[in-house]
Design goal:
- The structure is a single chain.
- By secondary structure, the chain is mostly helical.
- It folds into 2 domains: about 40-80; about 90-359, MetI-like fold (Orthogonal Bundle).
- About 70% of the residues lie in helices and about 0% in strands.
- The chain has helices at about 20-25, 30-35, 40-80, 80-90, 90-95, 110-140, 145-160, 160-190, 210-230, 235-245, 250-255, 260-280, 280-285, 305-310, 320-359; strands at about 100, 105.
- The protein has a two-stranded antiparallel sheet.
- A hairpin with a 6-residue loop joins strand 1 and strand 2 (about 105).
- Helix 8 (about 160-190) packs across helix 9 (about 210-230) and helix 14 packs antiparallel against helix 15 (about 320-359).
- It is globular and about 75 Å long.
């Protein structure tokens, strides 16, 4: 009768001395981890310190490249426009005549500055309410089977090239504005005292209002897409808390969703305004390109971006090129100033909202 007593070293049989290859394979991850734990801790600490250092250097380099690009742009624009900066001073910004012809060329960018600010302001007045309506519908009201394709369509419109919007504005929007919308505005609003000069008899061709409508259509997808994402990020508990107090769907959206997503909505409006200020091709194709300060919405005008696009390749004198580059520098300054003011407003609104919530 064989002896069933196990050997003193705990092995179950003589074949155990050779080991079980399958068992070693299964236990390999655990053995590997235990082996790593036996390594000196200084090795891991130095490795992590190296990775942290590389990560810090990489992120700092990315931020440094961004700052360097921005400063390089300012330096380049300032250097190339220095002849007109020193020659015209603030007269370049406040001047109303743009005449590059010798013997006495004059460069005044005020008509272009007015056109830029006017078209962007009208575009935002038209685009923001429409964009918020689209965002509220997609995030709060639309059924699931409709929300996904409509959201994809809005995001697709963001990527449409501006020249496509310009062609649509020339062949579709301009005839409608000239034959229907602008005459109706003239008949209805033009008779109001004080508004007759703003809505006079429509003229043929592109004008400030047509370019503003095209800009509004261009920035609607951007504002709507970002605002929708901000509203979808609102926790469901926020909606449920307002609904539990007996609020309607409209009150829930107005009191529980929009205030919570306010910073994201304002950020979307800032991005839309940035695109409106710097838009070139669509505005150039629809604004009429006149070097005069527009006295009404039905008159042709020009923006800083459209003036650069129209005149740069046709400029032959170095002084005119310097003036056009200074116009780009002014556009950059306007964009930075508008964004700075908008961010200050965002901080003020978010801070007041947090204070109200805390009260």
């Amino acid at each position: 009768m064989p002896d069933a007593t196990p050997p003193p070293d705990g092995r179950r049989g003589p074949n155990r001395a050779l080991g079980n290859p399958f068992s070693s394979f299964v236990n390999f991850p655990g053995l590997f981890v235990r082996g790593l734990r036996r390594l000196p801790k200084d090795i891991w600490r130095s490795r992590f310190r190296t990775l942290d250092g590389l990560f810090h250097i990489g992120t700092a380099a990315g931020g440094g490249v961004l700052v360097a690009l921005f400063l390089t742009e300012i330096f380049f624009l300032t250097q190339k426009s220095w002849p007109t900066i020193t020659g015209y001073g603030f007269g370049f910004i406040l001047g109303t005549v743009w005449n590059p012809n010798p013997p006495a060329p004059v460069f005044g960018a005020w008509p272009y500055i007015v056109g830029t600010l006017l078209t962007s302001a009208i575009a935002m007045l038209l685009a923001v309410p429409l964009s918020l309506g689209i965002a509220v519908f997609l995030s709060e009201e639309a059924p699931s089977w409709l929300r996904v394709p409509l959201s994809s369509l809005v995001e697709l419109l963001v990527a449409v090239p501006s020249v496509v919007y310009g062609l649509w504005g020339i062949f579709v929007l301009e005839p409608i504005m000239r034959t229907t919308i602008e005459p109706d505005l003239h008949m209805s609003l033009g008779r109001i005292p004080g508004l007759g000069g703003v809505f006079p008899t429509p003229s043929a061709g592109g004008d400030v209002l047509t370019a503003s409508v095209v800009l509004a259509i261009m920035v609607v997808p951007t504002i709507a897409a970002i605002s929708r994402e901000s509203m979808r990020a609102v926790p469901d508990s926020q909606r449920e808390a307002v609904l539990s107090l007996g609020a309607t769907r409209w009150e829930t959206t107005r009191l529980g969703v929009i205030p919570y997503a306010r910073s994201g909505i304002i950020g979307a409006c800032i991005l839309g305004l940035g695109r409106a200020l710097g838009e070139t091709m669509a505005v150039t194709m629809t604004i009429g390109n006149s070097n005069h300060v527009p006295s009404s919405l039905f008159m042709p005008g020009q923006t800083l971006a459209s003036a650069i696009a129209n005149e740069f390749n046709n400029s032959f004198s170095p002084l005119e090129r310097s003036a056009l580059i200074e116009a780009g520098l002014v556009l950059l300054g306007i964009t930075l100033l508008v964004n700075l003011v908008a961010r200050m407003l965002v901080r003020g609104l978010v801070g007041s909202g947090s204070g109200a919530a805390g009260e």
